[in-house]
TrEMBL record:
Provenance organism: Rhizobium calliandrae
Classification via Pfam families: TfoX_N
PANTHER family listed in its UniProt record: PROTEIN SXY (PTHR36121:SF1)
Protein name, per record: TfoX/Sxy family protein
Alphabetized InterPro entries for the sequence: TfoX-like, TfoX_N
Membrane-crossing residue ranges in chain numbering: none
Domain TfoX N-terminal residues, every copy: 8-101
Length: 106
């Protein structure tokens, strides 16, 4: 995704900062990371409070293969498909990601 598409995706939060990281991009709002782009897929931050909502909506949790072939689950989830066609639905998901980022600081 180019930076303009990412900014549009996160417009409900207000201004975002996009930084290159580990072959992808990190998306920050108010200094907190809310999403990562990995392999051309945007993944939103979630935590124990919001992960169940992502899972119920059919999102997938990002995991990579760690040492000895064991999967390492990361706190990022795919964006539910219906959000890409509806800015109001996307706004809900990106706000959940920001709320998870705020909780992560505590």
């Amino acid at each position: 995704m180019d930076n303009i598409e990412i900014e549009e995706m996160f417009q409900a939060l207000g201004p975002v900062t996009i930084k290159r990281m580990f072959g992808g991009k990190g998306v920050y709002h108010m200094g907190r990371i809310v999403a990562v782009e990995v392999s051309d897929e945007m993944l939103l931050k979630a935590d124990e409070v919001s992960a169940a909502e992502f899972e119920a909506a059919g999102a997938r949790r990002w995991a990579y293969e760690g040492r000895k072939g064991k999967p390492v689950n990361m706190p990022y989830w795919s964006i539910p498909d219906d959000a890409f066609d509806d800015p109001d639905i996307m706004a809900r998901w990106v706000r959940l990601a920001y709320e998870a980022a705020v909780r992560a600081e505590k």
